Amino acid sequence: MLALRYPLMNRRPDPEGDETETEEDAAAQLDVDAGAEDASFWRQRWHAAQLFLRSLFDLEFRQLLTPRMLPTLYLLGIVASAYAVLGYVVEGFSHSIASGFVRLLLVGPIAFLTLVTLTRVALEFCIAMFRIAVHVNELAGHAEDIAEGIPRISFWKPRKKR
Predict the structure, then answer these.
(1) What is the b/e burial string over 123-137, where b = at least 16 CB atoms within 10 angstroms of the residue's CB?
(2) Which of 133, 114, 117, 118 is nearest to 66 (CA)?
(3) Alpha-carbon distance 48 to 107, whole Å?
(4) Which of 79, 92, 144, 150 fits as disulfide partner to 99, beta carbons 3.0 to 4.6 Å?
(5) CA–CA distance from 82 to each of 74, 92, 105, 116 (Å)?
């Protein structure tokens, strides 16, 4: 994210006698910092796009793409919900004005909130499954490390044939 910093207005001199920056100096520094942050922002976006494309065409599935796509999927779910509800309201107005207003003021908002909530729940379930998978992987690694140090115990002895 691009962080904005505002220069301090009406700064008082420091008690130690150090020089304080004027408002023009602070504004010039803000422009320089914004340019550097802007370049860094776009560099990060370019790097993220490269990683996305590399992960998208990873045929061996070494990197998981879905957890990084969840914010985008949620935004698409919100937009799709709004589009669906808007279409539902327009269809109501095509039948009658009363039906359109009922859909616009009563059914539409409830349907939108329901669709967005269901989208959120589904995506949270998805991220929970991915987190569980990561933790199970870690536990499996720890179990293998622990099992290496434990001597094997046989619970039965083979019978000797006579």
Answers:
(1) beeeeeeeeeeeeee
(2) 133
(3) 40
(4) 92
(5) 12, 15, 14, 9
**3-class secondary structure, 61:** coil
Instruction: Check: CB of residue 81 under 8 Å from CB of residue 112.
Output: yes
Amino acid letter, 85: V
Sign of the Cα pseudo-torsion (88, 91, 95, 96, in order) = positive
31 CA to centre of own chain:
30
With b for 16 or more beta-carbon neighbours within 10 A and e for fewer, the 42-51 pattern comes to eeeeeeeeee
- Return the number of other C-beta atoms located less than 10 Å from residue 77's C-beta: 17
How far is it, in rounded angstroms, from Cα 73 to Cα 70?
A: 5
- Count other Cβ atoms within 10 Å, centred on residue 92: 19
- Tokens in use for 119? 């989208």
Would you write out the chain's pLDDT as a tens digit for each of its 162 residues? 333 333 333 344 444 544 444 445 555 554 555 566 778 889 998 998 888 888 888 888 888 888 888 999 999 999 999 999 999 999 999 999 999 999 999 999 999 999 999 999 999 999 999 999 889 988 887 777 777 777 777 777 666 666
